[in-house]
Specification:
The chain is an all-alpha fold and 92 residues long. The protein is 67% helix and 0% strand. The protein has six helices and no strands. It has helices at 3-18, 23-31, 35-41, 45-55, 59-69, 75-82. Helix 1 (3-18) crosses helix 4 (45-55), helix 1 (3-18) packs across helix 6 (75-82) and helix 4 packs antiparallel against helix 6 (75-82). It is globular.
């Protein structure tokens, strides 16, 4: 996957998150981001990577997102690896 393709997956996740009335407030609360930050994040590969990190915290969220975007369930992970910080291993 190229970085450009990864950013497209991140943008799809951003659109999905913005339309999810239950999950968007959780994301905003957990990250401290504002709605303005979310809008600005559309052009920031680092923000898109962090958003994918958040989505990947729960298998149900991954399934819901991928089903809505017609993506294979492993695509968020592959996209995350191509965005800033994705090459760092987190053992927690």
């Amino acid at each position: 996957m190229s970085q450009e393709s990864a950013e497209v997956v991140g943008l799809k996740a951003l659109a999905w998150m913005a339309g999810n009335e239950e999950l968007l407030p959780v994301f905003l609360g957990e990250t401290g981001a504002s709605e303005a930050d979310v809008r600005a994040g559309a052009t920031d590969p680092g923000f898109l990577g962090a958003l994918l990190d958040f989505v990947m915290m729960d298998d149900n969220w991954v399934r819901e997102f991928c089903d809505s975007a017609s993506l294979a369930y492993d695509q968020p992970m592959h996209a995350r690896m191509m965005l800033p910080g994705g090459d760092q291993v987190h053992w927690t």
